[in-house]
């Protein structure tokens, strides 16, 4: 019997109604599917029932990966590796539809990696991902709210995000101590071009390092009080980091890149 490993943040989704809800979000017929953290393969079975073109799963746990290979044989390609070490663009020539019950301890790291490494051509057409509710609330937060921050800004840069539902601990085995939330991410057709996405990480980190302080200090640290930038983007330095919209941050990155180029 396979036991969940706390060290890998494993909570297996067992609620059949939730599994059906997830698989009915999009039509997977004839599509190439990537599943992150399939666990015991409950969602994988539902995916296979919908006749996809191909199914690839990434499972870090060796015992689970071995069990999945025995369970699904040649119906599924099992990759026994850490998703953080994988280049998803090299997995398949097809665009991938991605499902993931992400380990809570590295969920934001996975999402940030995917977004920061995104080229102008997306390697996926849809991400259907499960997060700790508290993290999901930060991802979808609007500016001028307490949950709004770096994760909201980075997540919304190239992706439209839709909340599907909250999920209670009873849907998992073992039961986590917190609620979960299912989110969908769709590629944006139009977004602010940034030369080096690491600059987006840098600027949001500096601005939100002291989120309760006014904008003056982080702005001066990056722009040395440059009034042209202030006037161009209509920024009031008496505001706080959560009072600036996502687009303002993307344009701030543009101005920063112009200064350092």
Number of self-contained structural domains: 2
Q: C-alpha Rg, in Å?
A: 20 Å
What is the name of the CATH class of the largest domain?
Alpha Beta
The major pleated sheet works out as: 7 strands, mixed
Q: What does this entry show, briefly?
A:
With 261 residues, this protein is an alpha/beta fold. It is built from ten helices and nine strands.
List keywords for this structure.
alpha/beta; Rossmann fold; Helicase, Ruva Protein, domain 3; 2 domains; seven-stranded mixed sheet
Structure overview:
With 261 residues, the chain is an alpha/beta fold. The chain folds into two domains: 6-187, Rossmann fold, CATH 3.40.50.150; 197-260, rRNA adenine dimethylase, C-terminal domain (Helicase, Ruva Protein, domain 3, Orthogonal Bundle), CATH 1.10.8. The chain is 35% helix and 19% strand. The chain has ten helices and nine strands. The protein has helices spanning 16-23, 42-48, 62-72, 107-116, 133-139, 150-156, 197-208, 216-223, 227-233, 246-260, and strands at residues 12-13, 32-36, 54-58, 77-79, 96-101, 124-132, 159-167, 172-173, 180-187. Strands 4-3-2-5-6-9-7 form a seven-stranded mixed beta sheet. A two-stranded antiparallel sheet has the order 1-8. Helix 4 (107-116) links the parallel strand 5 (96-101) and strand 6. The protein starts with 11 loop residues before the first strand and ends with a helix.
